[in-house]
Design a protein that fits this description.
This protein is of the alpha/beta class. The protein has one domain: Rossmann fold, CATH 3.40.50. The chain is about 45% helix and about 10% strand. It contains 6 helices and 5 strands; from the N terminus they run E-H-E-H-E-H-H-E-H-E-H. A 5-stranded parallel sheet has the order 3-2-1-4-5, sandwiched between helices. Helix 4 packs across helix 5. The chain is globular, with a radius of gyration of 15 Å.
């Protein structure tokens, strides 16, 4: 059985956090977890850089060749668009490209079949808020009871994450 986590966040993630994300992704790969992310600059790229074996990552793109990423996960189903619309607070104001980004976020959280939730999400957002494209993924995760560890919460995320991982490994 495969286990997945979602590694995402703002394109404006601070460099020190990006470095931690890359190290964390390397360590999670060693535990057998598979990364799900989106190929964007910043947090997504930092997580992806930490994964050595391409079999241990699923990178979901809004369109083929986004950010020169070679991932083959770029086709977005009508179901993903419907799900994205359900979770987005202002879908009618989104451009087509924005809708592609928000729909691809569904895969980052729930997998290619939109029915295999990640075990948890690690991210960084400004002030720890559910904003931007990452906010869309976090709304989906919240609705599916997926634990979220936001690295912007510097005082608590690491301790909470460590406890979660200890409990998860013993299950």
């Amino acid at each position: 059985m495969s286990y997945y986590y979602t590694g995402i966040g703002s394109r404006k993630t601070p460099q020190g956090v990006l470095n931690t994300m890359t190290i964390l992704a390397s360590n999670l790969e060693l535990t057998g977890l598979i990364l799900r992310s989106g190929g964007a600059d910043g947090a997504d790229s930092a997580f992806e850089a930490g994964v050595k074996d391409s079999a241990n990552k699923s990178i979901f793109l809004p369109w083929k060749g986004f950010n020169k990423n070679p991932s083959e996960h770029y086709t977005i189903s009508p179901e993903a668009y419907e799900m994205a619309e359900h979770y987005h607070p202002a879908w009618n104001r989104c451009s087509f490209a924005a809708r592609q980004f928000h729909a691809r976020n569904c895969y980052q959280v729930l997998g290619l079949n939109l029915a295999t939730p990640s075990q948890f999400i690690v991210c960084w957002t400004p002030d720890g808020k559910h904003v931007g494209g990452t906010g869309q993924a976090l709304r989906i995760a919240t609705d599916h009871n997926i634990p979220i560890f936001n690295m912007a919460h510097t005082a608590s995320w690491e301790s909470s994450f460590d406890h979660f991982m200890m409990d998860w490994r013993t299950q």
